[in-house]
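Here is one chain, start to finish.
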Amino acid sequence: MASVQGMQSRFGFSDLLTMPEDGRRYEIHGGELVVMPSPLLCHQIAAGEICSVLNDYRRRSGGCAVTAPFDIVFDEYDVVQPDVVFFRAERLHLLDPEVVTRAAPDIAVEVLSPSTASVDRGRKMEMFARYGVPEYWIVDPVRLAIEVHAFENGAYRCAQVATGGDTVRSVLLPDLTYTAAGIFTLP
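Its structure:
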């Protein structure tokens, strides 16, 4: 039998609901509470531009694009706030504007920051795969690169790395394209 000292309590979504409104972003990875640092300006510009691209697509084809902070509750012990998420029009019935979202998004986007890059490429990418998120974009404002990862056979395959004038193409939404460089330009 494990000693009381050796036991760690897991942090769950119900615990997250009791956290103070202190302006911090919290996530739960496998029962571990993670405090997300405030992002840099280059991060926010890229996230905003990605959301703009997805909102343009939404206007043409339907769906819903949302930026963080916005909880995706995969289960009690896995709760994340991707920088941007997108739900296709045919899955909007899974969303209720008045209730926390428990459905996996069709596209999850993380914009890398120095303090979060290893988590975004590691634990979060694995979590998105575990819950079957069809497409995961990693946006790197230092390398000025966008990676499109497609979920296949239980894992992600890097379908594209785009930089500069390259056209980014969604695997899930084949009529969604945009130029990589436009994501990193000051408005």
